[in-house]
Amino acid sequence: MRNIIGALFLVATLSGLSSAGEMPFDPVHYEAMRNSGVPFAVVFHANWCPTCRAQAPVLKELTQSPEFMGVTLFVANFDTEKLLERSLGISKQSTIVVFKNGKEEARSTGDTQYDSLSEILRRAIP
């Protein structure tokens, strides 16, 4: 019975995320995405970081383009998500970690260029 409830929760969670795009980091949704194999990325953002501020509109534009409609981008607060940072070995803000089939596929730090950011997000797409 517990497995059925868990499966229903996962389906409900993922169906709510099917439109992809950007969303604030949430550990429950993050784990659901990793377990499902759905393509996603995590960006470690800090409001005080000029690189992060330059990166944000580029990532927003990319996640709204048809090519990346199926890729969810979790925006994690660099100053508060210390457990996630430790688990992924993150030491700098403006780092993007791309996942494909539940495993890390690529990462980038400090990049603000449309072409190279689109290339790294492409690594999430099956």
Q: What quaternary form is this? A: single chain
Whole-number tally of structural domains: 1
Note the beta-strand portion. Answer: 15-25%
What about the largest sheet?
A: 5 strands, mixed
Tell me the overall shape: globular
Number of helices: 5
Helix amount, in percent? Answer: 40-55%
User: What pattern of helices and strands is seen along the backbone?
Assistant: HEHEHEHEEH
User: What is the radius of gyration?
Assistant: 14 Å
Structure report:
The chain has one domain (2-122): 3-Layer(aba) Sandwich (Glutaredoxin), CATH 3.40.30.10. Helices cover 44% and strands 23% of the residues. It is built from five helices and five strands; from the N terminus they run αβαβαβαββα. The protein has helices spanning 2-17, 27-36, 50-63, 82-88, 114-122; strands at 21-24, 40-45, 72-77, 95-100, 103-109. Strands 1-3-2-4-5 form a five-stranded mixed beta sheet, sandwiched between helices. Helix 3 (50-63) links the parallel strand 2 (40-45) and strand 3 (72-77). The model is unreliable at 1-18 (pLDDT under 50).
